[in-house]
Structure formats: structure tokens, C-alpha cells
């Protein structure tokens, strides 16, 4: 099976005995065999794990060094039948100096030895008493170890077929102002392994986690971090066995600290996504200008790449905050971005009135809430918001009532203009049968509503606030020069799933019980443009998701296909995992094809979309984020 750009990695903190290399190597061997059985392809262990980090002056004992070499050989030989790249830490003697090194090996062969560059010698750290910095031996690019000539120092290990390039740094290196991983990454490494022995003091683990996440974001890389276990000496320090796997600023997996058993964590790193992000981010490639480092590459070949046990958590709603503790902060930030954008436009135009069409649906509801908050910020009376409800052939009592009640509850000026007669007259003018409920029938209503909004705005000296959202723009689910157009579109970079989430957040936050009840009912109303007559019971007959598919699927496609430029096969694979148990493969594939077809054919609408604030990582503004031909063919994506 194609690995779709994923590779499974592991980090482990084994039980150990300080200054007992053979015991330690045996524990490491057990973990390597387990990780290999679980189809991990890369595993990193803590700094100096063969001997233990806390050996102190015992590092100067020849006996300890010699035995650690023997233990390493036994470890490599006993794991020679595995297909996993291993990184273990141990002391290495070179030219009568002692180096704190990472030894990389795979399938019975040592691939590289990489020294620690920054040797901490402050506060509780006293490493310079024993170890010399790798900077002091930077002129050496090859060493002899266990009878093998091995690349040393600036080394990147790569599997060309998988586009995986692996670099290594050790503990303190990542705490430096310019970590070695920064140079490794701008020279091609996309996965960094860190062998560490970071001790615990109050709040240090939080800082360390943010440091690793931040470095993975800055370097646009995967970052696999393993720290020493609780079995290190506690003469002065305590270690927790902290394990972290990060990818481009996101924490994929972490361990429970202070466990008294060997620990191992796994995750799939999306190497293709990392490489794609680097292509987009030109600042990343520009950074090569400040690097005069050269690296030797070591080629390897991973076998049996499989996604059969793919267990990476894929969020089915990637635009919605997943951290419950941050939800309120995130929602308020999104809302304030919308408010700030609209406020600037109103101040710049010198106008103090806004015109907005209210349907009783989600999009216009959020736009009205944003406009209401904007006017409060600018100290403009809410009566200056002219909220217009425009009943048409498909308007139901439920949406009409919600629209009217919401406008009143916010203290805005309600204006009702029934568009039926105007549309019937237009049907006569263009020779259209009013009983033929086709696209002309629908779009006539949408354009009539937009004309009313624009003309009233001209009449009163106001600005038309647009209500359309990102999901509708992606699908072209808007009437060209109808609801497609406004003077400022506050929802233009907010997907439908997030709009629903924001309205719910506002409902939970508001102290006005009446407004809250209205918003809850709006949230429970089926999504519809209400351009076709309701059913016999007066309920919504035209449901958008029956026509174009579930918005949660389309928002998922937007995130991965547009935000991360993933190929359609990979997006389908991820969607299968994200919506497992809810939608099957054929159902997802059906709507995925609809998504691509509509996304390509409807670009002309996005090419002339109105101004609106960028809120998240995806935006379709032709002036900023998306420059796409209106007549590109979608065949290869289907």
C-alpha cells in the first residue's frame, strides 16, 4: 500500500540502571523489537541511554566506556533483522576527548554518529567537566567505531523514495538561540530526533513542550523527542521520561511523566504535508542564505511501509477548536477579527449605517451578531443597523419568525420587503414561467434581494454587510451578482461548520435569554437558501446538504485539499478515518468529486469576491491567498 507520505515514528524512555550498559542495552533491545513489530520506522531514545545520563565522574572511567561499546555492539547485532532506524545516546571517545553522541543504526549497520554541540555548564548542569562540544571536532567527518567507518558530525539520513530526511540534535542543542535543527531543516531535514535528559523542576515541562512545538513550527518539521526516565540517579536531580512527538507546531502524542516502567509512544508524521508547507513558505527557502553548513547524506531504504494500523487522530472538523480550554479564547478572537475588519471599513467610509439581509439562517445570523458588536464598539446606536427580511417563494414561518425576533431582540431597525411581486414581474419581463422552478426561478429571488439591499444602502448612506461564508465560496453555492456580492463580507473566510460553532458560542455567552432561545432554534433549523416553495406542511423543502452534500465533509476537503494541497487520494484516505462509522468510502468519494468539480468550475465567482477579513488559515481572496485560473480542468483530481 502507498504510504501517502506518512511514516510511523516512536519515542521511548526505557528503564535503566546507572552505569550498567548491558542492562540498559537489553531494555532498549526489547523496545526496538516491540516498535518494529508495531511497524514504526524511526525510534529515538534518551541522551546517554546506554550508560545513563547521571554517571558523572564515572564517565572518565575507561571500564564504563569500553563496556558501553560492547553493549552497543550486542544491541546492534540483536536487532539486525529489524527495519527500524534507531537513535541511542552514549559517550564516544575521539582523539582523547569524550563526546556526548547519538549513534544511528539500522538493520545491523551503524549509519552515523552525531555529537552534542552545546554542552550546558550552568546551574544544575556540569557537563563540560566530562564532555567536549562537537564544535571542537567539526573538521572530522568520519570515525571508526566497532570496526566500521561511519559518517560523523553534520549528517542527514534519508530515504529518497519516501522523501524522508532525518537530522539529529541532543538535548541542550534545541535550547540554544540557533539550534542545530534550524540548519538541518533548511538544508533538507524534515524529521528531527532529539535525544535528551532534561530534568524536572516546577513548570519546566510546560516550557519544554512549547519549545519543542515551537521549533517544529519554525522549522516546518516533524520533531521526535525522548528524555531520560525516572531511573536516572536522583542524587540532585529528578527526571520524568518526557516523550513528545510534534509536527509543524502541533503536538501529535506525548507520554505520561514519572512512570516507573519503560515507555514508548507512537505517531504517524505526515512528511508530504511538511514538504508541501515548505514549498509554499518562501521565507523557509530564503533562510538558506544564512546557512554555510554542508551535510553528508546517508541513504537508507525502509521496507514494509504500511498504513494498515493507521492510528493518527484525524479531526473530522479541523476548523473547530479541539481544545476545550481554548474554545472561548479562540471564538472571541475570531469574532473580534470580524468586528475589527468591519469597524475599519465603516470608519474609513465615514458611514454610520449598515444594511444587512436577514433570512433566519446561520450565515446572516452570524453577520448580524458581528455587525451588532461592531456598532457597540463604535458607539453607534443599533437602530442604525437596517436589518431587512425579504420573504420569497420559499420562506417558511420558522425562519421568518426567527429573523424578525432576532432583529428585534438586538434592537436593530426591522424592515420587511416581500419580493414575490417584484420577482413575478421580472418573470414576465424575461418571459419565464413562474411554475418552472429552475435556476432562473431561484436566482431571480437572490438577485432581487441583493438589489434591494444595495439600493437601500445607497438611499440611506450605508454599507451592505455580506453574509456568505467560505464553504459556499468553495462550492460556488451563491448566486453570481446576487448573494455573492456585498460591500464588506464579514463571513468570507469562515467555513460553515465554524459558523455554526460561533453562533452556538454566542448563544451560550449571551445573558439575554430571548436572544439565546432564538439562536438555539436557528442552530436547529436545516440549512437552506429557501428559494423553492416549502412542503405541504410549510416546512423547508430545499435543503442545501441534500444537493451538495454534508458541509462537514466539504469543510474537511477545504482544509486538506486547499490548505495543505494534498492529493485527492490522500484526502479520501484521511476522510475515511475521520468519519469512520458515519460515512463509508463510496459516500465520501461521491461528495469529494462534487467538491472538486464545483471548486474548479466556480472559481470565476471567487475571482471577483468582495473584501472581507481573513480569519483562519484558509482564505479565497484573489488579492491574497488564492490565485487560480477560472478555467482550469479538474480531471486529475477526480
TrEMBL record:
<dbReference type="GO" id="GO:0003952">
    <property type="term" value="F:NAD+ synthase (glutamine-hydrolyzing) activity"/>
</dbReference>
<dbReference type="GO" id="GO:0004359">
    <property type="term" value="F:glutaminase activity"/>
</dbReference>
<dbReference type="GO" id="GO:0016740">
    <property type="term" value="F:transferase activity"/>
</dbReference>
<comment type="pathway">
    <text>Cofactor biosynthesis; NAD(+) biosynthesis; NAD(+) from deamido-NAD(+) (L-Gln route): step 1/1.</text>
</comment>
<dbReference type="InterPro" id="IPR022310">
    <property type="entry name" value="NAD/GMP_synthase"/>
</dbReference>
<feature type="binding site">
    <location>
        <position position="204"/>
    </location>
    <ligand>
        <name>L-glutamine</name>
    </ligand>
</feature>
<keyword id="KW-0436">Ligase</keyword>
<comment type="similarity">
    <text>In the C-terminal section; belongs to the NAD synthetase family.</text>
</comment>
<dbReference type="Pfam" id="PF00795">
    <property type="entry name" value="CN_hydrolase"/>
</dbReference>
<feature type="binding site">
    <location>
        <position position="122"/>
    </location>
    <ligand>
        <name>L-glutamine</name>
    </ligand>
</feature>
<feature type="binding site">
    <location>
        <position position="605"/>
    </location>
    <ligand>
        <name>deamido-NAD(+)</name>
    </ligand>
</feature>
<comment type="function">
    <text>Catalyzes the ATP-dependent amidation of deamido-NAD to form NAD. Uses L-glutamine as a nitrogen source.</text>
</comment>
<feature type="binding site">
    <location>
        <position position="467"/>
    </location>
    <ligand>
        <name>ATP</name>
    </ligand>
</feature>
<feature type="active site" description="Nucleophile; for glutaminase activity">
    <location>
        <position position="171"/>
    </location>
</feature>
<feature type="active site" description="Proton acceptor; for glutaminase activity">
    <location>
        <position position="47"/>
    </location>
</feature>
<keyword id="KW-0547">Nucleotide-binding</keyword>
<dbReference type="Pfam" id="PF02540">
    <property type="entry name" value="NAD_synthase"/>
</dbReference>
<dbReference type="InterPro" id="IPR041856">
    <property type="entry name" value="NAD+_synth_C"/>
</dbReference>
<feature type="binding site">
    <location>
        <begin position="357"/>
        <end position="364"/>
    </location>
    <ligand>
        <name>ATP</name>
    </ligand>
</feature>
<dbReference type="GO" id="GO:0008795">
    <property type="term" value="F:NAD+ synthase activity"/>
</dbReference>
<dbReference type="InterPro" id="IPR036526">
    <property type="entry name" value="C-N_Hydrolase_sf"/>
</dbReference>
<feature type="domain" description="CN hydrolase">
    <location>
        <begin position="7"/>
        <end position="271"/>
    </location>
</feature>
<dbReference type="InterPro" id="IPR003694">
    <property type="entry name" value="NAD_synthase"/>
</dbReference>
<keyword id="KW-0520">NAD</keyword>
<feature type="binding site">
    <location>
        <position position="443"/>
    </location>
    <ligand>
        <name>deamido-NAD(+)</name>
    </ligand>
</feature>
<dbReference type="InterPro" id="IPR003010">
    <property type="entry name" value="C-N_Hydrolase"/>
</dbReference>
<keyword id="KW-0067">ATP-binding</keyword>
<dbReference type="GO" id="GO:0005737">
    <property type="term" value="C:cytoplasm"/>
</dbReference>
<feature type="binding site">
    <location>
        <position position="198"/>
    </location>
    <ligand>
        <name>L-glutamine</name>
    </ligand>
</feature>
<feature type="binding site">
    <location>
        <begin position="477"/>
        <end position="480"/>
    </location>
    <ligand>
        <name>deamido-NAD(+)</name>
    </ligand>
</feature>
<feature type="active site" description="For glutaminase activity">
    <location>
        <position position="116"/>
    </location>
</feature>
<feature type="binding site">
    <location>
        <position position="472"/>
    </location>
    <ligand>
        <name>deamido-NAD(+)</name>
    </ligand>
</feature>
<protein>
    <recommendedName>
        <fullName>Glutamine-dependent NAD(+) synthetase</fullName>
        <ecNumber>6.3.5.1</ecNumber>
    </recommendedName>
</protein>
<comment type="similarity">
    <text>Belongs to the NAD synthetase family.</text>
</comment>
<keyword id="KW-0315">Glutamine amidotransferase</keyword>
<dbReference type="InterPro" id="IPR014445">
    <property type="entry name" value="Gln-dep_NAD_synthase"/>
</dbReference>
<dbReference type="GO" id="GO:0009435">
    <property type="term" value="P:NAD+ biosynthetic process"/>
</dbReference>
<dbReference type="GO" id="GO:0005524">
    <property type="term" value="F:ATP binding"/>
</dbReference>
<dbReference type="InterPro" id="IPR014729">
    <property type="entry name" value="Rossmann-like_a/b/a_fold"/>
</dbReference>
<keyword id="KW-0808">Transferase</keyword>
Amino acid at each position: 500500500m502507498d504510504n501517502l507520505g506518512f511514516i510511523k515514528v516512536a519515542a521511548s524512555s526505557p528503564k535503566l540502571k546507572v552505569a550498567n550498559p548491558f542492562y540498559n542495552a537489553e531494555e532498549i533491545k526489547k523496545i526496538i523489537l516491540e516498535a518494529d513489530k508495531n511497524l514504526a520506522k524511526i525510534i529515538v531514545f534518551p541522551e546517554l541511554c546506554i550508560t545513563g545520563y547521571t554517571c558523572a565522574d564515572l564517565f572518565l572511567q575507561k571500564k564504563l566506556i569500553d563496556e558501553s561499546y560492547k553493549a552497543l555492539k550486542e544491541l546492534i547485532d540483536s536487532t539486525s533483522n529489524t527495519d527500524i532506524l534507531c537513535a541511542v545516546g552514549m559517550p564516544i571517545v575521539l582523539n582523547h576527548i569524550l563526546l556526548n553522541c547519538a549513534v544511528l543504526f539500522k538493520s545491523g549497520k551503524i549509519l552515523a554518529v552525531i555529537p552534542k554541540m552545546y554542552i550546558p555548564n550552568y546551574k544544575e548542569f556540569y557537563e563540560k567537566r566530562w564532555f567536549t562540544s562537537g564544535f571542537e571536532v567539526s573538521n572530522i567527518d568520519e570515525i571508526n567505531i566497532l570496526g566500521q567507518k561511519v559518517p560523523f558530525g553534520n549528517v542527514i539520513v534519508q530515504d529518497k523514495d519516501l522523501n524522508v530526511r532525518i537530522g539529529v540534535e541532543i538535548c541542550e542543542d534545541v535550547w540554544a538561540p540557533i539550534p542545530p535543527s534550524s540548519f538541518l531543516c533548511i538544508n533538507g531535514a524534515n524529521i528531527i530526533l532529539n535525544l535528551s535528559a532534561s530534568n524536572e523542576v516546577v513548570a519546566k515541562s510546560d516550557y519544554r513542550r512549547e519549545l519543542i512545538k515551537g521549533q517544529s513550527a519554525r522549522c516546518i518539521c516533524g520533531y521526535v523527542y525522548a528524555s531520560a526516565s525516572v531511573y536516572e540517579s536522583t542524587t540532585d536531580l529528578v527526571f520524568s521520561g518526557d516523550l513528545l512527538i510534534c509536527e509543524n507546531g502541533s503536538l501529535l502524542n506525548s507520554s505520561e511523566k514519572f512512570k516507573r516502567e519503560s515507555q514508548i509512544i507512537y505517531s504517524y508524521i505526515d512528511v508530504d504535508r511538511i514538504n508541501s508547507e515548505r514549498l509554499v513558505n518562501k521565507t523557509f527557502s530564503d533562510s538558506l542564505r544564512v546557512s554555510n553548513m554542508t551535510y553528508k547524506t546517508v541513504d537508507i531504504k525502509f521496507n514494509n511501509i504500511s498504513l494498515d494500523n493507521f492510528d493518527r487522530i484525524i479531526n473530522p472538523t479541523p476548523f473547530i477548536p479541539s481544545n476545550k480550554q481554548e474554545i472561548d479564547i479562540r471564538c472571541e478572537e475570531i469574532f473580534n477579527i470580524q468586528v475589527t475588519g468591519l469597524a475599519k471599513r465603516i470608519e474609513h467610509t465615514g458611514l454610520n449605517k449598515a444594511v444587512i439581509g436577514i433570512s433566519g439562517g446561520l450565515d446572516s445570523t452570524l453577520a448580524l451578531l458581528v455587525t451588532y458588536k461592531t456598532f457597540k464598539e463604535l458607539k453607534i446606536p443599533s437602530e442604525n443597523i437596517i436589518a431587512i427580511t425579504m420573504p420569497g417563494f420559499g420562506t417558511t414561518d420558522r425562519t421568518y419568525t426567527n429573523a424578525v425576533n432576532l432583529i428585534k431582540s438586538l434592537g436593530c431597525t426591522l424592515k420587511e420587503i416581500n419580493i414575490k411581486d417584484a420577482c413575478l414581474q421580472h418573470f414576465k419581463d424575461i418571459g419565464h414561467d413562474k411554475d418552472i422552478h429552475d435556476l432562473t426561478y431561484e436566482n431571480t429571488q437572490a438577485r432581487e434581494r441583493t438589489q434591494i439591499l444595495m439600493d437601500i444602502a445607497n438611499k440611506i448612506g450605508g454599507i451592505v454587510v455580506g453574509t456568505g461564508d467560505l464553504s459556499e465560496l468553495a462550492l460556488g453555492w451563491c448566486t453570481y451578482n446576487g448573494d455573492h456580492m456585498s460591500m464588506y463580507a464579514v463571513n468570507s473566510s469562515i467555513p460553515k461548520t465554524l459558523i455554526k460553532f460561533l453562533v452556538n458560542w454566542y448563544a451560550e455567552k449571551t445573558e439575554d435569554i430571548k436572544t439565546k432561545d432564538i439562536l438555539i432554534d436557528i442552530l436547529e433549523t436545516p440549512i437552506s437558501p429557501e428559494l423553492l416553495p416549502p412542503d405541504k406542511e410549510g416546512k423547508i423543502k430545499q435543503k442545501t446538504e441534500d444537493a451538495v452534500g454534508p458541509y462537514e465533509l466539504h469543510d474537511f476537503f477545504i482544509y486538506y485539499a486547499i490548505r495543505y494541497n494534498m492529493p485527492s487520494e490522500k484526502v479520501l484516505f484521511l476522510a475515511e478515518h475521520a468519519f469512520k462509522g458515519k460515512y463509508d468510502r463510496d459516500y465520501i468519494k461521491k461528495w469529494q468529486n462534487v467538491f472538486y468539480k464545483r471548486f474548479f468550475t466556480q472559481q470565476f465567482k471567487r475571482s471577483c469576491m468582495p473584501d472581507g477579513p481573513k480569519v483562519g488559515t484558509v482564505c479565497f481572496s484573489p488579492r491574497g491567498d488564492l490565485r487560480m485560473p477560472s478555467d482550469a480542468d479538474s480531471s486529475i483530481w477526480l
